[in-house]
Each structure stands twice: as C-alpha cells, then as structure tokens.
Design brief:
By secondary structure, the chain is mainly alpha-helical. The protein has helices at about 1-55, 65-90, 120-150, 155-164; strands spanning about 90-95, 100-105. This is Zinc ribbon domain-containing protein.
Length: about 160
Amino acid sequence: MAFFDDLGKVIAEKGQGVLNKTKDLTEITKLSVKIADLQRKNENLYQTIGKMYMDRYGDHPDEAFKEAVHNVQENLKRIVNYKEDIKILKGYQKCDSCGADVQNGSQYCSACGSKVKEEDIVAEAEVVSEEVQEDDFREVKEEEIHAEAGTEQTPETAKTEAEA
C-alpha cells in the first residue's frame, strides 16, 4: 500500500506543478495582451503628436524635422492630385465658377448654376490618363529598385537621378 500512497503523492505534486504552470502561462498571456494594448495606444499617440506638430509647426519645422515635414507635405499634395484624377476618370469636372464637382454631360453646375464648358472634359481626361500611365508607374518602379537595392531614395537623390 505504501507504493500507492507514494504514487498518489507524486501525482498530486505533479498535478499541482502543472496547475501552477497553467496559472503562470495565463498570467503571462494577460500581461502580454496588456503590453500589446499599450503599444497600440502609444502608436496612436505618436500619430496624434505628429499630426499636432504638422498643424502647429508645418510651415516652420525644426531643422531635425524639415525633411520629414517636407515629405509629408509633398505626399499630401499628391493625394489631392490623385483624388482629383479619380474624379476626372469617374466622369466629374470642377465648375470654373465655384469649384464644385459637376457630372460630365451636365450643362449647368448644380451648386451655382453656371454654364459648364464641355470642351474641357475630354482634354482633361486625356491628360490625367497620360499622367497616370507614365509618371506613377515610373515612380513605383524607382521605389521598387531602391527597395530591392536596400537603398533609400531621398529628394536629393531622386532629383539627381531624374536629371541623369
């Protein structure tokens, strides 16, 4: 009987050890989730700080931030241009009088009532189409080349390469 008593004690001790390990793993998982949550919150705060900095100091950034601020401003300009290109491709144009979006084929602007110029629609769509085909794909290709080479393209190197 002593054998079975000893075996019962060993099983109870091992079971308690497994239970303790399970509790530890559960606690580790809970702490890891809390860490990940705080890291996500910090990333959001970093973004908020960056946006606040751009709003407040974007026109006169500190020397250390000049290049990054310039890049953000250039990206924002490009985003606006791309959105305009999308509108043109979807069949909208800007009203010359008020700047509102007007559906192609409309004779009058629904916002201000001004007469819409039909001849600008076709010419504008052709320009956008050519720009999208040439500039954007050349740009993507240059970025891919630099990514594959492990080099980063700065505005200075991009200008130098464009001139070459």
